Amino acid sequence: MLRRLGSLCARSLGARGGARPAAGLRHLGRGPRRRASDAPRNQPPSSEVVARPVGVCSMMRLPLQASPQGLDAAFVGVPLDIGTSNRPGARFGPRRIREESVMLRTTNPSTGALPFQSLSVADLGDVNVNLYNLQDSCRLIREAYQKIVAAGCIPLTLGGDHTITYPILQAMAKKHGPVGLLHVDAHTDTADKALGEKVYHGTPFRRCVDEGLLDCKRVVQIGIRGSAMTLDPYRYSWSQGFRLVLAEDCWMKSLVPLMGEVRQQMGGKPVYISFDIDGLDPAYAPGTGTPEIAGLTPSQALEIIRGCQGLNVVGCDLVEVSPPYDPSGNTALLAANLLFEMLCVLPKVTVV
Known about the structure:
Layout: H1 2-13, E1 73-78, H2 93-100, E2 113-114, H3 115-118, E3 121-126, H4 134-150, E4 154-159, H5 165-176, E5 179-184, H6 204-210, E6 214-224, H7 235-239, E7 243-246, H8 256-266, E8 270-276, H9 298-306, E9 312-319, H10 330-344, E10 350-351
Parallel strand pairs: 1-3, 1-4, 4-9, 5-6, 5-8, 6-7, 8-9
Antiparallel strand pairs: 2-10
């Protein structure tokens, strides 16, 4: 019976011989190098062929793969939350996002995107982080992502708290040089330190500036809001040349015109998308660690991501989903959909 099920899933997924189990990215870089264009293209299985509750829990029920070789893009989990300042639980984000992703299908009728007909995509499992040492976790994340991007694979990351974007951008900059950044969040995450620590989820983009990882004239932060300790909480971002779009400047309006300006600003150089789920209003995404009222709507989130079509996107992340604070799973469902939308705007995706 199990052999029959495995064979059925493999045919539906388009994988030769079935999928290999992930190994925490421990085997990244091993095995023969194969051009992505020559690799079989995986397809999420149709619920008309394989029932949604059936199979190993992977993103969109794609094959689990231990190596990025032969892939154009891959989903990667980083189950880390020891950099949080308020409510924990984001370590469970990748698993719950994968669970909710069973509702996702292969095409995007709204945009005409056909990602699985254009790219070879799989789930690379999770980075094997150290939950007892944040600095060591950053090292492990950086080393894993260096191997992913060196293989020519674009990572789409399931977080995890926002600390993880710092080592990911270290890996990105090693290959691409300073990158542009589209950052959706309630917070700028540009603090210098807290409780004497310079690395936590409130400091990633300050550390990135310190190390020259960002092209600061091509950094846009959208959805920023909330109370602060001073009346000038955005001074640092402005001083670096970042463009800030406050949440109140987005209320009751389409963000399509804004994204037209963002595309002009980003140009054709490499861009990284970092989406903190708390950029959305907690009415839509309550399962997060540092919620702020009066945020963006899901439709505005779609406008932002779809507005990245045509940009040279080299990586994406969706962070700060904390499932314990939303037992319904709706926050993770929203996150899964936004990650699919990110996949749909990657370079080389066919749009009809």
